[in-house]
Specification:
single chain, mainly alpha
Length: 224
Amino acid sequence: MGEENRKEEKTKFAADTSDRSIGDWIKALFVLLVGLTVAHLGVTLFLLSELGTDTFTVFVQGLSVVFGLTVGTVHVIVLCLLMVVMLLTTKGYVKPGTVVCAFCGGPIIDLFTWLLGGVVNGSSNMPVRIASMLIGCVILALGMSVVINSNAGTGPNDLVAVILSDKIEKVEFRWIRVGCDLFFVILGFFLGGTVGAGTIAAVFLTGPLVQFWLPVTKRWIRIK
């Protein structure tokens, strides 16, 4: 009985949105954009602390070293490849919001960097930088949970953990996310990516924090 209850409590991310009206999609994409903005505010605070890059960027950095391309170019290529693979191998996960997440995150980070770069940066006192990194992780997780609960799609790199969580029923999302982040960091590091204290913190904080926020933000969001 206890095992059955645990299975019922585990979050399932697959959702059928085929009967959504245009109005429902507008609402869902608006919620997704709000979540994406919040999430990338968190990413910006994390990056401005200069205590390490986020986990996926370490992997992208490593690939950029191997192939001699810019980080931005590799980032777009990897996200597009992930979307194609997921479209071909899964059903119902890649949605319009996935494309929005893939291409709108960068400009949002640039905007917040312009707004906050003078407040938090590498020359700030260490307590300020550590606080910025930790608060950034919390805000990032909050935004990610809103994006996921919009059921309009999420970023291709974040979909890896989402899809695996649905497929591996006995393991909670937070641990699968930790495993995915750890995989990206280790592989990226050996390919030549840069790892900092903040990167390690992100590995072990992001998954558990997203799982904490998911039921909270689900109560806030009412979309068909």
